[in-house]
Design goal:
Layout (H helix, E strand, L loop, with lengths): L4 E9 L4 E9 L2 E10 L6 E11 L4 H11 L9 E9 L2 E8 L7 H8 L34 H13 L2 H6 L3 E6 L5 E7 L2 H14 L9 E4 L5 H9 L4 E4 L5 H9 L3 E7 L2 E6 L17
Parallel strand pairs: 3-6, 9-10, 10-11
Antiparallel strand pairs: 1-2, 3-4, 5-6, 7-8, 7-9, 11-12
Family: Belongs to the FdhD family.
GO molecular function: oxidoreductase activity; sulfur carrier activity; sulfurtransferase activity
Pfam families: FdhD-NarQ
């Protein structure tokens, strides 16, 4: 497997000097995803190349499973018979074989995933129906409950658990925490969508979904499709270091998810689902309503 980092020669220039040096970069390479599944009405599986995504090598099986789960191709780990990593004509390849009881419109799925890449997952979709993007089951209201101090500490815990970012400064991260702020798992990738897919794919394969107490933390902004991926996994709380988009806030609010943005430097904003975040004792109760 290709390393997640590579060393390059650079010229480092300051106001007063120039020198030759080496720098460590995060690797970005293509991953081809192939699915073997039965189409509706067919008795046998057919193999279809669904698309290529640009990603940082590592956890490729989890990335493929997370992406297929997010797109509704699979709904549980038991839908998957086998996941194989190989070399294809475009480089690294993951082949996912689905069970005989799973049927997939491979043409529709291929069109949906053909545009998948590290920077944009929703590109190319003709329309967005926020109401139709509900989680598999309604999220429990008010669960989990998060103390402000826990939310304040998530960004530092996320940053402290990013091994490749610490060496390159070039990767996004996504992590799952519990309501006490304990880190359950973390994944990194050059693409923020990929980091979330890797994380959710790992949780699905490990049988840790759904988890009514899960908190998803992302290192960048909270865009619409990251909220969609979290809802698909029935994650009730999403916290972002950066800003949410208007559509992300609308989607979270429509389906009872708690969405927190700007969680850094001792502050954060709650954009949806405020009932899950406790109010500091010093704040009057009417300010929380």
């Amino acid at each position: 497997m290709t390393s997640s980092t590579t060393t390059v020669s650079i010229r480092r220039i300051t106001d007063e000097s120039a020198s030759d040096a080496e720098d460590l970069l995060a690797v970005e390479e293509p991953l081809e995803i192939v699915v073997a599944a039965r189409a509706p009405g067919d008795a046998r599986r057919a193999e279809r190349r669904l698309g290529i995504t640009m990603r940082t090598p590592g956890n490729d099986r989890e990335l493929a499973i997370g992406l297929l789960f997010a797109e509704g191709v699979i709904s549980r780990a038991a839908d998957v018979v086998a996941v194989e990593e190989a070399l294809g004509p475009s480089g690294d390849l993951v082949r996912v074989t689905l069970g005989d009881d799973v049927t997939v419109d491979l043409g529709r799925t291929e069109r949906a995933l053909a545009v998948a890449n590290a920077s944009c997952g929703v590109c190319g979709k003709a329309s967005i129906d926020v109401a139709a993007l509900a989680p598999p089951a309604p999220l429990a209201r008010g669960v989990p409950r998060l103390a402000p101090g826990v939310v304040h500490g998530l960004a530092a815990r996320l940053r402290g658990a990013q091994p490749v970012f610490g060496r390159t400064g070039g990767l996004h991260a996504a992590a799952l925490f519990d309501a006490s702020g304990a880190l359950a798992d973390l994944r990194e990738d050059v693409g923020r969508h990929n980091a979330v897919d890797k994380l959710i794919g790992a949780a699905l394969l490990a049988g840790r979904l759904p988890d009514p107490g899960a908190v998803l933390m992302v290192s960048g902004r909270a865009g619409f499709e990251l909220v969609q991926k979290a809802l698909r996994a029935s994650i009730p709380v999403m916290v972002a270091v950066g800003a949410p988009s208007s559509l992300a806030a609308e989607l979270a609010s429509a389906h009872g998810m708690t969405l927190v943005g700007f969680a850094r430097d001792g502050r954060f904003n709650v954009y949806a689902g405020r009932e899950r975040v406790e109010v500091p004792v010093a704040v009057p109760a009417e300010a929380a309503s």
